[in-house]
Amino acid sequence: MTGYMRLPLVGTLVASLAFVATSRAEAIKLRPRYREGQEFRFAIQKNLTEVVASTKIQGGQAQTGGEHELRVTVTVREVTPAGATAGVRFDAVRASRSGQGIPTISFDSATPPAQDAPDSVAAALRPLIGSVAVLRLSNTGEIMEVTPPALPAMSEEAAVLGNAFTTEEGIRGLFSGLFAPPGLPGALEVGAVWTEELRQPLHMRNEAKSTFTYTLDSADDSLAKISGVGIVVAAGPHGTAPIGARVTESENTSSIAWNLQDGFAQTIQTRSRNTIVADPQPGLTLTLTNIAFVGIERLP
């Protein structure tokens, strides 16, 4: 399943697909075209801001933020009838986390290794550079299996940044968009529309139900362009009314250029802003706003 349109409150879950063709043009194959030895370089940027507001918080609200910027090289190692195996090498990484009441943590691989203090976050993350995550991919581009890079054990502080690169969940979230458009649509005509529905547990047995609608806007011999919009709503257990939680704001957009020559992403941009209001106990209301941006660009 694809992951780059995922919101911070939405995990990798079962997708529900519905296709509606609106033209009679030739079908466009939105699938990978694996060839052994294929190699691509990507720049990836991922920013997240979380704002929690409550009368119980000093100053009324607290804000945290995280940034990830990385350069990776993707190499198709083996092609099989079932799909392919690819390696993702981490060439450069810059990451940080900061917020009210928490220490700022950061790492920049461009800093000379000699400046890494012993037992520091930088020293713990330095072995990431040059390491490789191995992905087993299906014929449709879905990541079926992840083997994270083999790195020394990290401190809890270093893991705050490192988990995005060293855990199966983090790696799926970063890279699934490279191999397949959202919803694994296959072959579609220009003008086709499809939807992807996602669910994740929310406060007090509720679910965050997210519906994303994508449109194949145009295609030529080299590129297909896809746009997407999404909305998140709260749903109670078994489809009942939500209990003590509601989504008051939901704006999610995506713009994708898909390379039809090799079947990999060319560029991706997603933006999201979602606000959830919860009432965990009488007299206490919490408002959580997630603001996220993901940008992916293939490098020469």
Describe the structure in your own words.
By secondary structure, the chain is mostly beta strands. The protein folds into two domains: 14-31 and 183-300, no CATH class; 37-47 and 65-179. Helix content is 8%, strand content 55%. The chain has helices at 121-125, 156-166, 168-175, and strands spanning 18-20, 28-30, 39-53, 61-80, 83-99, 102-108, 132-138, 143-147, 186-188, 193-201, 207-219, 223-235, 245-259, 264-281, 284-299. Strands 1, 3, 4, 5, 6, 7, 8, 10, 11, 12, 13, 14 and 15 form a 13-stranded antiparallel sheet that branches. A two-stranded antiparallel ribbon has the order 2-9. Strand 11 and strand 12 (223-235) form a beta hairpin. Helix 2 crosses helix 3. The longest helix has 11 residues, at 156-166.
List the keywords.
13-stranded antiparallel sheet; two-stranded antiparallel sheet; 300 residues; disordered N terminus; mainly beta; 3 helices; single chain
| Global morphology | globular
| Secondary-structure element order, N to C | EEEEEEHEEHHEEEEEEE
Q: What distance lies between the first and last C-alpha atoms, to the nearest angstrom?
A: 27 Å
Which structural class matches the secondary elements? mainly beta
Largest sheet: 13 strands, antiparallel
Per DSSP, the total helix count is 3
Helix content: under 10%
Number of domains: 2
Radius of gyration: 20 Å
List low-pLDDT spans. 1-24
Strand content: over 45%
Number of strands: 15
- Rounded mean pLDDT score: 88
Topology:
Layout: E1 18-20, E2 28-30, E3 39-53, E4 61-80, E5 83-99, E6 102-108, H1 121-125, E7 132-138, E8 143-147, H2 156-166, H3 168-175, E9 186-188, E10 193-201, E11 207-219, E12 223-235, E13 245-259, E14 264-281, E15 284-299
Antiparallel strand pairs: 1-10, 2-9, 3-4, 3-15, 4-5, 5-6, 5-7, 7-8, 10-11, 11-12, 12-13, 13-14, 14-15
